[in-house]
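Co-fold these.
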Amino acid sequence: GQQVMQIPQYQHVQEGEDFTTYCNSSTTLSNIQWYKQRPGGHPVFLIQLVKSGEVKKQKRLTFQFGEAKKNSSLHITATQTTDVGTYFCAVSYYGQNFVFGPGTRLSVLP
Amino acid sequence: DVKVTQSSRYLVKRTGEKVFLECVQDMDHENMFWYRQDPGLGLRLIYFSYDVKMKEKGDIPEGYSVSREKKERFSLILESASTNQTSMYLCASIKDRAGQETQYFGPGTRLLVL
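Predicted complex below.
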């Protein structure tokens, strides 16, 4: 099946520092979604990107879809303890089900 | 608001037992999914269903079966539980798979097979 990579696997930051996670595919994607899973919780949808080069913002979160539609990034500015959790990308290859990445687990030290 | 519920949050079973995990969604979604989540592996698709009585294998269907007798309910069955099926099981639903809408997840069932 299709493979999707996420880096890093873990990230520990001091509160107030920025954080970025990357999602990479070897194949051109139709679209990509990002989810957040709090410790002990279930994945919750954050955003969907569809267009090449698309950039979307949600408060301190910035999502970007690569020009070639093979990668994406999620950037958090000035992390807070409420940002703790695992961030998953879910990629779609035209007409197929979403494939989830392994996730990036973010820890924020107060 | 979409609500996806799962029958149990925690379950402990013995090797060889038959296990039923149930998922119910209340938004009339056509498509439902079962995933398992393991550390470092993310979410892996076990089975999905795009209509009543329809089912399709996902990436890791071995050792599992499913049932979709009603639109709102999607059951995952472990015919003979094994220790390597200890995992977190997540159910999800989506209205229109072709439209690539968001998936709504249930709270998950953490299964321990002894």
